[in-house]
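Notes from the pairing session

We agreed to fold both candidates in a single pass and log them together. This is the raw record for the first candidate, unedited. Please don't reformat it; downstream parsing expects exactly this layout.

Candidate A
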Amino acid sequence: MYYVIEGDANTLSKATIKQVLSDKTEEEKSVPQIGLATAPSHWASCVQAVDPIGSSVTSTIYLEDNETALCCACVPFESREWEVYLVVGTGQDMNVNGKASAYQSRGGGFLHVYKLHDNGTRLEFLHKTRFEEPIHAILPFKGRLAVGIGAELFIYDIGTKAMMRKSRGGRVPNKIVSINAAGDRLVCGDVAESVTYIVFKPKANRMIPFADDTIQRWTTASAMVDYETTVGGDKFGNLWVLRCPPQASEEADEEGMNGFIVNERPYLGGAPYRLDCRAHFFVNDVPTSIKRTPLVAGGADVVFWSGISGTLGILVPFVSREDVVFFQSLEQALRTEEPPLTGRDHLMYRGYYQPVKGVIDGDLCERFMALSYDGKARIAAELEREPKEVEKKVVEMRTRVAF
């Protein structure tokens, strides 16, 4: 089953439309409505259960009171014998126009909890809990729920009539927009200040930030590649890979509250340690989702990402130093042999926000296949290989993971 959240700004919800129609005369009701009813400062939103096998929507719940769904997660709660519930984070009276209105006076957000019936095809509303800030990120964490409320991270458990707070701490500079977890470690993406690594100490019930970034990154999506490495994207069209320093990682994993990480002092208004940037690349689209996954059964893992303009891309890891040297040489040769149509320098284009690091442009390398025979021969001579051998290398890089 898929659980989908939808929201549309400046659109009247079904409950609001029903209320408006009740105040109209019969003559006004008879006027046909073309498209959705629109109004400033209003939101229309719903939660749907979708059956991908039967290609049907099995359940739809419309949100009321000018709420819009912002995030959702299926959460197994340990206190309910690991029964799975659907939790939806919402925002109320959200403003996207930059100007506050008289209607938008409440603000805040809610956590809606739904019970799953009939193998997840039907949703039953249990309760909702109000918060002072809209909920932009939630994640199942050790049988509970990790929630980003504004700039602070919380851990909640399910209750009979509301969500119950179990732990509080782990602040980021501005607002949490994404959460990832591995073991006792949480990685929180900030709306304007990259990501922050936070360790959860279960015995003391504390969350301690221990590493953050040195560069402002307006995070739109992030995912953990391994226990120490995070890949993410920002709203300026960049992809980046950050890794936690070994010393900070070891200190964060120490048992109890007597370790170094608990007593480390913040540095320059941030966490005690700084993350290392291992890769950075401009992709010319705003990443909206990132996932480490194999594209075919039994294939190697890649970093798969999607963009707001419909772009689908992958980051493929190299398995040998020989391939790295070969494609670096091929990329460098193609920069002079196949310049961009706009005349802009390729290296400057790919590194406009931060210099390119640790990434080879696969799109540029594949331009070798479209060159004339003379162009292929010149580049192959620089690489001390035959043109067919270069073509074979480029094709093998594709077929290694998917195509």
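Candidate B (folded immediately after A)
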Amino acid sequence: MNRRTFSLMGLGTAAAATQTASAFVRGANLDTSMMYMGSIMSFLVRAQDTDGRFAMVEYRARPGNEPPPHVHLREHEIFSVLEGKIEFHCGDQVETVGPGETIFLPKGKAHAFYIRSEYLRTLIISLATTKEPAALDSYFASMAKRATSMDIPTDDVTYLTDDPSHAIEAGEKYGIKMLSPEEAKRALPHFGGLGANLT
């Protein structure tokens, strides 16, 4: 398709922004997917496609694939569940989200989650809130490798088995602060800790 210029009114702090973008179609398949910390992450919209304003991925996972508690320093995050259930902890709130439901997690708020079904498929959308571009998709890609199958891997490294310094260093680069166990206890009083849903 040809590139078209169009105006986005009322988005962000500017009254109008001019953006050059091309329409495209992408699906969750081997061409768009990576193995990410024991799960499959399909990159449907990259931040580079949207002038850095947002990104969207499809996340396929099972219990044990969850990330550690963390805070996004420059992006809001939205999960829209397609299959399965997730129990979110955001501050002192605990919310269970199922198929057809969406949760909004604001920038700057500590959060974590447990997958509460045998299988989870959800969209994850990150929205830039500063002049810095959305970078959650780049964080995911930096922690992943090319998928060889659309099946969730059974023997891949997860956050429970990986050296935590990998996530901490990648997070620092892409605007995500990983919380220590002590910080997580203070920020998420009802969260039992990474992996607690497996016992």
